[in-house]
Write a structure and sequence with these properties.
90 residues, alpha+beta, five-stranded antiparallel beta sheet, 5 strands, 37% strand
Length: 90
Amino acid sequence: MILESDPDHITETFSFGLPFFKYKKKMLCYLYYSKKYKRHYISFYHGDRIHYPELIQDGRKKFKILLIDMDKDLPVSFIMNIIDDIKQYI
């Protein structure tokens, strides 16, 4: 869904051994697993510039994360709204 939302500008790659999505060749978000929370998450670059109470900063300077509950449906619309908001800062 992320790639399909803007196929001319969003690409996927591996950086630092992690699956990254880039917007116009600049960091957008990546996927990872939190040992602290024992859950997968999506981390948004420039997350510090947006306000969503569901996102966790945990001392990160530029990133905020959204924890993924593997027992629930992925909040695709919510994730896409965050990405749309972040794209204005890239």
